[in-house]
Amino acid sequence: MPSRRRCACFFLGFAAGLPLLLVLGTLSFRLREAGIDRATIGYLSWVGLAYGFKMGLGTLVDRLPLPLLTRAFGRRRAWLLLSQAVIIGGWWRWR
């Protein structure tokens, strides 16, 4: 018989993953209904990869300092600044 704590962790984990599945599934269905081609929907599904890698990325952010930015801003703020710069660079590239 599983312990009460394990059951609670199982259901909390299920509840944490279920909204992501429902949102991405519904979004792809709605986009297909709107006439968006499958390749574009596939590119949009890459957004869900961030949730799959968040455990590894969190460990990376906590342990790996960025050489110049960490000294100036601190480790987490340096990673936030870098991620915002990458997002802006991606937007600038595709606009």
Q: How would you describe this protein?
A:
The structure is a single chain. This protein is an all-alpha fold and 95 residues long. The chain has helices spanning 4-33, 38-45, 49-52, 54-63, 67-73, 75-94. Helix 1 (4-33) packs antiparallel against helix 2 and helix 5 (67-73) crosses helix 6 (75-94). The model has no long low-confidence stretch (mean pLDDT 81).
Question: Nutshell version of this structure?
Answer:
The protein has 6 helices and no strands. With 95 residues, it is mainly α.
Termini separation comes to 56 Å
User: What percent of residues are in strands?
Assistant: under 5%
List SSEs in N-to-C order. Answer: HHHHHH
- What's the pLDDT, averaged over the residues? 81
Count every beta strand, where a strand is a DSSP E run of 2 or more residues. 0
Helix content: over 70%
Query: Any low-confidence stretches, pLDDT <50, length ≥5?
Result: none
Shape: flat
The major beta sheet can be summarized as: none
Q: What is the CA-atom radius of gyration, in angstroms?
A: 19 Å
Going by helix content, strand content and strand pairing, the class is: mainly alpha
Count of helices?
Answer: 6
